[in-house]
Design goal:
12 helices
């Protein structure tokens, strides 16, 4: 039983073999946070909380000056009744008041995990995998109910939390803030880590010590954004990738979010994450319910690496869904950086022909195939084929590709509309806009108003027709701008601040419908690269285009930072041309291949123009990738050397049974007269014997992890190596390579 209820002490104990989460009903009313961390046995629950009267902390109960909500570690704190820290929620009643008093009413313990209405969330495939606690709170004056959901998984150190608000009264209530979770820690001796960036430089790691006051990351762009990923973590001061306590918080949502940490004057820490309250409100009428997105809370006593591996397994197996969830992905060639908008059928066939000859499995036709699309100034919304470029239509091109023995994929950007399009001329009110205000363009386009059912129905209809028109195996779903003039012509004035969230609900409905109708299609999410890389999108599309920046050196930081939360199987990575189109850097083809092979491998260049030597390299690396992609996609990741700390970068993937592993090592800039370096591995069986790259020498796992393997002395910038490690009890495997076996210890 992973959830225990002690009625006498008022304590809920959510636990598995490694983790405990403790909640106590204080005075039978207030859910207080007692503990979250390594599994504990409760011996003296009454000794956990301490109470003392504090100056300027008001007494919540008459005659008890020691008790104040201002100092109580709460599970879901309110505003206006004594707690001056940041509230988790804010309700406005008919009289304009924002004071609430939700108190405990009842609770229920449920086998399994209920789904969330209209929202993506983690799930179970059998009720035996998890248990869920639902604590129901009520505000009798408002007639409002509030359900706090806690799910704990049996085999993962994960607690999933969300909240629903139900109007049981007779008057309208407006939600002005509704975090998905809040938790109070008893001290503030933490560092915090988040993933920041911009277009072409997504999910860089930043770690800082906590300070008094509020630390906050957010997005108000209408998407989870390039700038801040909807994730943060608290780390003990000694924590690194291998050891120390780490608490992770990841929001299953693709729109505006806020994650905040507040350190109080008494060195306590309050952390919350949920929908961004900026420019948000939601009218809850009598009988209506509002559901917040879900937060995935991960505890690790094995550092950031342990947290990451838990997130990776959870996202791979219990957030991603569909036909491709447990499958490796086809190696693809995309024509975008090879042609941009300037292509014809002959050029596309030449790229497909060259790709087939090199062993590529999927051809993807990118932007420019539809309407009158010769640049980014027209035709979004007009999803009919451009016969000038493709005289035989999509079906004719797809048939050609399939006869070559390859699958056919297609780029779409269905959330957008060009002012120069038939769709916009027919329905100018279908975009997000404010009546009478100018309509700001970004990339010469506007955003369709997916808060409207009629617009969503149109998108579903037109894409259903498109996907049925030919045999499509892959769809790259792009979204290339953020929201401005956020308003909807279909919503009344009192609901205008609901537009951004209603947009996300509309998008999720579209994706649920289309992925259900076309289970054979592998959908890849994209938003100018990684501008919407979040668990919400992964629920519908099991991989995301990691970044528009395809430079191998930049990708080391981007993919390393992304791996803090997201597994390699969710990352799209392409080998592109040189000089790189984003940064102008020239790197060897081998390094470009190795960087992309640490994720879902693809190519995006004039592959038909490669030299004979380069084609040989590509063929060799594709053969190698087929040998290692199971490890990359489903192995346990261990980060060894960080690109944020120096010029040497390394990580490895280890099979769950520890019989195989693959190590990636990169040297970005060479050093004159360099020192000898050893790379200590992780995750192997210390008692097992291993071979490296089919060499004759044998090494114990203990030796490789404690002493390490010798790295080669490198004379060239932008060098890279892959080491395939295999247990002797495993099947022998010969890996063709372009490097000599190095001298190992």
């Amino acid at each position: 039983m992973p959830i225990a209820w002690n009625e006498k002490s008022g304590i809920f104990h959510l636990y598995n073999n490694r983790m405990s989460y403790l909640i106590q009903l204080v005075h039978g009313k207030y859910p207080a946070h007692l503990y979250w961390g390594k599994r504990v046995q409760i011996l003296q629950p009454s000794s956990i909380l301490q109470f003392k009267g504090r100056a300027f902390s008001p007494s919540t109960e008459p005659g008890n000056p020691a008790f104040s909500l201002d100092t109580l570690p709460q599970e879901y704190p309110a505003f206006g009744n004594g707690d001056f820290r940041s509230p988790a929620y804010l309700l406005r009643s008919k009289d304009g008041s924002t004071v609430t008093e939700f108190v405990y009413d009842s609770h229920e313990i449920i086998k399994g995990k209920p789904s969330l209405k209209s929202l993506p969330a983690s799930y179970v495939e059998a009720d035996s995998e998890a248990e869920t606690l639902v604590i129901t709170m009520v505000d009798s004056m408002l007639g409002m109910g509030m359900n706090l959901y806690y799910t704990i998984y049996h085999d993962l150190d994960v607690a999933a939390r969300s909240v629903s608000f139900e109007n049981r009264g007779s008057q309208n209530v407006v939600l002005e803030k509704c975090m998905s979770m809040s938790v109070d820690f008893h001290h503030s001796d933490w560092d915090w880590l988040h993933l920041h960036g911009t277009w072409g430089r997504e999910r860089h790691i930043e770690r800082k010590p906590l300070h008094h006051g509020i630390q906050l990351i957010s997005s108000s762009r209408g998407a989870s954004s390039h700038q801040h990923n909807p994730f943060l973590a608290l780390l003990s001061k000694n924590a690194n990738d291998e050891y120390g306590e780490v608490y992770g918080f990841s929001l299953v949502y693709s729109g505006n979010f806020q994650a905040a940490i507040e350190v109080s004057s008494f060195q306590t820490t309050r952390i919350s994450i949920g929908i961004n309250p900026f420019n948000f409100s939601w009218l809850v009428k009598p009988g209506e319910l509002f559901q917040t997105p879900e937060t995935l809370m991960v505890y690790s006593s094995d550092g950031l690496g342990g947290m990451s591996r838990t997130y990776h397994k959870l996202l791979r197996e219990r957030v991603c869904r569909g036909t491709y969830r447990d499958k490796t992905r086809p190696i693809l060639i995309n024509n975008w950086e090879a042609t941009y908008f300037h292509f014809n059928e002959k050029k596309i066939k030449e790229i497909a022909d060259a790709g087939k000859d090199l062993g590529i499995e999927l051809f993807v036709l990118d932007d420019g195939w539809f309407g009158h699309r010769e640049n980014d100034k027209s035709s979004l919304g007009d999803w009919f084929v451009n016969k000038k470029k493709l005289p035989n239509g999509l079906d004719g091109l797809a048939d050609y590709v399939r006869k070559k023995g390859m699958k056919f994929g297609l780029w779409v950007e269905p959330e957008m509309v060009s002012p120069d399009s038939d769709l916009y001329r027919k329905h100018p009110d279908w975009c997000i806009h404010v009546s009478g205000r100018s309509r700001t363009l970004s990339r010469n386009q506007l955003i369709l108003d997916l808060s409207r059912k009629d617009v969503c129905d149109y998108v579903i209809q037109i894409l259903t027709m498109l996907f049925k028109s030919t045999q499509i195996s892959y769809v790259k779903w792009d979204m290339n701008r953020n929201m401005t003039e956020v308003g909807s012509a279909a919503l009344p004035p009192e609901r205008q601040k609901e537009t951004a969230h209603r947009y996300m609900l509309g998008l999720y409905r579209i994706l649920e419908t289309l992925t259900g109708r076309f289970p054979q299609i592998l959908f890849e999410s994209c938003s100018g690269g990684g501008g919407r890389f979040d668990p919400g999108m992964l629920y519908y599309m099991p991989q995301t285009w990691t970044s528009d920046d395809t430079d191998a050196v930049e990708r080391l930081k981007i993919q390393y930072g992304t791996s803090i939360v997201y597994p390699a199987i969710t990352m799209g990575a392409h080998v592109s041309d040189i000089p790189n189109h984003q940064v102008g850097r020239t790197t060897p083809l081998l390094m470009r291949c190795h960087a992309a092979m640490a994720a879902n491998l693809g190519f995006e260049l004039n592959i038909d123009k490669l030299s004979a030597d380069d084609k040989k390299v590509v063929k060799e690396q594709i053969r190698l990738y087929h040998r290692i992609k199971e490890l990359v996609c489903f192995g346990n990741l261990y980060r060894l050397l960080s690109p944020f700390d120096g010029m040497d970068v390394a990580w490895m993937y280890v099979a769950p049974n520890q019989e195989r592993a693959v190590v990636f090592y990169f040297k970005t800039l060479a050093t004159p007269n360099p020192p000898f370096l050893r790379l200590k591995l992780q995750g192997l069986d210390p008692l097992e014997s291993y071979k490296i790259n089919d060499g004759k020498l044998e090494y114990s796992g203990d030796e490789l992890m404690k002493i390490g393997l010798n790295l080669p002395l490198i004379k060239n910038d932008f060098s890279s190596f892959i080491f395939l490690i295999e247990a002797l009890k495993g099947k022998s495997m010969y890996i063709e390579s372009r490097w000599s076996l190095i001298n190992l210890i």
